[in-house]
Model the fold of this input.
Amino acid sequence: MTQLEPLPPGQRETSEFPRFGQWPYARRFPREVNHVSLSVSGEVELPLTISDELSQLPLIEQTSDFHCVTTWTRCGLQWRGYRCSDVYQQIIVPLARPTNAASLILLRGQDGYRTRLPLEDLLARDVLLATELEGQPLSVEHGAPIRVIAPAHYGYKSVEHLSRIELHSTAQHYRPPGPRVFQFMDHPRARVAEEERGVGLPGRLLRYLYRPLIRSTVARFRRAMVDYETLDAS
Ligand SMILES: Nc1nc2c(c(=O)[nH]1)N[C@H]1C(S)=C(S)[C@@H](COP(=O)(O)O)O[C@H]1N2
Ligand SMILES: [Mo]
Done:
């Protein structure tokens, strides 16, 4: 486990890479875990579904640290997948033809989870649509069959089981995942270096609010995974 960068403010290194997320999503699982299918819609002239087209793109290997907003960091994860900017420039732009207004992207997972990022952030070189972790196809635990990896942003921007990419001009079509009272947890950019953990409260303060939630969240996601695998086997 090599740490690539000094730990960002408020983060602590862990040797685990737990399945993690917001509580309501612990028991939601993807329906399709083998076949990649990404619908592209919104501010485009021609909505489309991407699947086999991805194989024209170069596969990128990237080692990066993963920072969860609740303050745990897993260093040196080895991902393999497609550069998000390649997907955008070489598939979405020519085939879907985004309008000039497209500047905000909604990313949705098969489990109903969702997040938003400015298009500009998604076009950064280190943002991947990953299909492999540590040399293996992504497991259900970590986002099968394809997920976003945006290392400069807190983990909640790295949507697992990615199934829809929506282009928009404003956030008008976006409702953050989870209960309304927790909307402060959803920062439009969530950059790790700036400690943009949430809105309305300073990131430094949110560290202390989030840390006590880690253990119970890991346990909840682990139990849900065990139940899912038991059901699957029977
Ligand atoms: N589809 C989906 N993507 C998701 C989540 C989720 O619950 N569902 N949780 C987010 C959060 S908060 C984190 S920290 C990471 C955790 O990734 P992991 O489960 O592979 O560890 O996924 C993010 N992406
Ligand atoms: Mo997270």
User: Anything to note?
Assistant: The first helix runs from residue 84 to 96. Residues 17-22, 25, 68, 109, 111, 113, 142-143, 155-156, 158-161 surround MTE (ligand 1) (CB under 6 Å). The chain has a mean pLDDT of 96. The two ends are 36 Å apart (CA to CA).
